[in-house]
Amino acid sequence: xxxxxxxxxxxxxxxxxxxxxxxxxxxxxxxxxxxxxxxxxxxxxxxxxxxxxxxxxxxxxxxxxxxxxxxxxxxxxxxxxxxxxxxxxxxxxxxxxx
Length: 98
Description:
Helix content is about 25%, strand content about 50%. It has helices at about 20-30, 70-80, and strands spanning about 1-10, 35-50, 55-65, 85-90. A 4-stranded antiparallel β-sheet has the order 2-3-1-4, covered by helices on one side.
């Protein structure tokens, strides 16, 4: 398993009370693919520099997790179907030899 940082921009416009449920659904999807959540950081709602349609801001969440490398693309595809997940970015954490 590799360690990843996942940055998710959530479209919860007008639904701030649904933030907790949105984060839990992302974590559940990761665990559904055999991953392990190592930490979650709620960042904040930020306005976009450039408008994309009607959406002018999104709520940013960073999730650190462990997942098999061959499961990252299926996870991305599954979360792209979730209307709350506006954008998603993944960064593989490099292990540093001591």
